[in-house]
Amino acid sequence: MKQETLEKLTSILKNRQKELRSHFTPLGTDCYRIFNRSYSNLPLLIDRYGAYMHITLLEGEEQFALSEDQIKKIAGALYTPVEKVIIKTRESLTEHQQYASLDDKQEKLTVQENGLNFQVNLHDYIDTGLFLDHRKTREMVREESFGKSVLNLFSYTGSFSVYAASGGASRITTVDLSATYLDQAKDNFRANDFLPGAFEFVQADVFKFLEESAEQKEKWDIIVLDPPTFSNSRKMDRTLKIQKDYLELILGCFKILKGGGTLLFSNNLSDFRFHKKDFPSGIKIQEITDLTTDVDFKNRPAHKCWELTGFLQGRTGHEPKPRRTSPDRFKSSKRAPRQGRDSRSKY
Ligand SMILES: C[S@@+](CC[C@H](N)C(=O)[O-])C[C@H]1O[C@@H](n2cnc3c(N)ncnc32)[C@H](O)[C@@H]1O
């Protein structure tokens, strides 16, 4: 990075941190995104997690790196000691690759978001345990949860479930393929003084869970469906590709959604296409990405989100079109003598 770029970057970081700190601190939040490629398209994400800075170098066409001196200057601009700066490189994966663990420190840090506590691990994996971009969506779930049953699918470390508990949900079901993530979800419940034993944690493949819950006629008021873009765990019978599978997942959720209930569907695939026409007309679909994107992600939203309500009934836009030759007004002409030249010659 040129000296001039570094100077501009550090000045942007200083101002941005000041702005975001005064916005988030009164809200009980100490983790937020400070830099999101927002200057000169630098392939860099900088997130604050409590007293730590978590910097992700994005692998693009050109290899981007930071020298020790540049890291010191960035840390200085963010008033953070260099020992509290963690730097990772996010490689672009091909479809069948998954991120390997980076370290095995197993150090947990507790951060605050909207007055709730979450445990993150900043060293060992590319993802920290808390996806900052869904802060607003989680808040929305908390506001809607009182007295409701909430199902959190692809739950990861259970952050949506913790918000549902904080909002007074009557039943919370947290589903993930990974026992490790479900244990972390339980830790997040405990970190907020909610007893995990009072709620359901299910280790399952969501595709199977949806089928079995429908067979058992289980229903929930609110369903959160925030799947990964791609998943091919050995614990699954199939591969999940969100663009191919979203319709099946959403329709599966509607089979177990209570009348009057809400499904929140989100994903992070940048060129994802939602084809409303594929859905039965009884399902009402509204994109709410604007509402679920908080100030620190406005310049570059990381997810897209939809609210779906209604029923699994009605037409999709894909029924076969009626054949043009068969309407009744043409059928009647078979009975009446035709008025054209041919009919005259026949009679
Ligand atoms: C991107 S995270 C989902 C983010 C999460 N919704 C949140 O709010 O933080 C992906 C999660 O999906 C889980 N997963 C992947 N495939 C799955 C499947 N078929 N059934 C259940 N969980 C799955 C992974 O174990 C991981 O915890």
Which features characterize this protein?
Transcription Regulator spoIIAA, alpha/beta, 2 domains, 347 residues, 10 helices, Rossmann fold, 7-stranded mixed β-sheet, globular, 15 strands, binds S-adenosylmethionine
Structure description:
There is one protein chain. This protein has 347 residues and is an alpha/beta fold. The chain has two domains: 3-90, RNA methyltransferase domain (HRMD) like (Transcription Regulator spoIIAA, 2-Layer Sandwich), CATH 3.30.750.80; 131-310, 3-Layer(aba) Sandwich (Rossmann fold). It is built from ten helices and 15 strands. It has helices at 3-24, 68-77, 135-144, 159-166, 179-190, 206-215, 242-254, 289-292, 328-331, 341-346; strands at residues 31-36, 44-49, 52-58, 85-90, 109-113, 116-120, 149-153, 171-176, 200-203, 220-225, 230-231, 240-241, 257-267, 283-287, 304-310. The strands form four sheets. It has a seven-stranded mixed β-sheet with strand order 9-8-7-10-13-15-14, sandwiched between helices. It has a four-stranded mixed β-sheet with strand order 1-2-3-4. It has a two-stranded antiparallel sheet with strand order 5-6. α3 (135-144) packs parallel to α4 (159-166). Mean pLDDT is 89; it is low at 326-347. It binds S-adenosylmethionine.
